[in-house]
From TrEMBL:
This is Thiol-disulfide isomerase and thioredoxins. Transmembrane segments: none annotated. It holds the Pfam family AhpC-TSA. The keyword Isomerase applies. The keyword Isomerase applies. Keywords: Isomerase. Residues 9-162 form the Thioredoxin domain. It comes from Thiohalobacter thiocyanaticus. One of its GO terms (molecular function) is oxidoreductase activity.
Amino acid sequence: MVSLETPVCDFGRPAVDFSLPGVDGRTWTLQDCRGEKGLLVMFICNHCPYVKAVRDRIVRDARELKEKYGINSVAIMSNDPSDYPEDSFDNMKQVAEEFDFPFPYLLDETQEVAKAYGAVCTPDFFGYNADLELQYRGRLDESRKEAAAPDVKRDLFEAMVQVAETGQGPAEQIPSMGCSIKWKEEA
């Protein structure tokens, strides 16, 4: 398992459109997912210990951002499940149901969406303003493979509240860290 950090936020970079199948049986696009004040695009998976450590916090923050601040969220799973069966579409459905995901959970089977976004790890967070311009590319909080203390600073949440209120993300951002995306072998 390779641990990676996300690159620095490329402020203003436009969100990339997509059309991906969700665990709910529906196909979702960027426009379907966006919220009135912005969109949080998350690259996650089922097997990664970094994601497992914060799944409950991701759900909490996504729900609160939607209900109170007009920021919608979407989660995309781009790993190759052939070597990681825990990341299969059927298992994605189970995890979404078990954790009551308040956002679409989508499969990027070709991995083209992850490549277009420049996603490198799970979790990898991309926070966009109402104009779908990138304003945040940082961590959820100081959790790593284990959840941090319950009262730690909510980096992602606070940044996205700022984006909802001002359209701008914070100048200082701490990169997210996680497992590398499991890319398919080139044929």
